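Extended Data, panel c. Modelled sequence:
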Amino acid sequence: MDNVTDKEILDIQNRLNQRLRKLLDFKTPDEIYSEMALAA
């Protein structure tokens, strides 16, 4: 992990959070989080 920059970690994190998920009814984790935050 010493060779991985913070920017690379953030890029990977963003790609994962913006990927459609069958488990989430083909929504992204970001979409689900936003919906839950607005409902609270």
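The CA atoms of residues 7 and 37 lie 26 Å apart. This feature is highlighted in the accompanying rendering.
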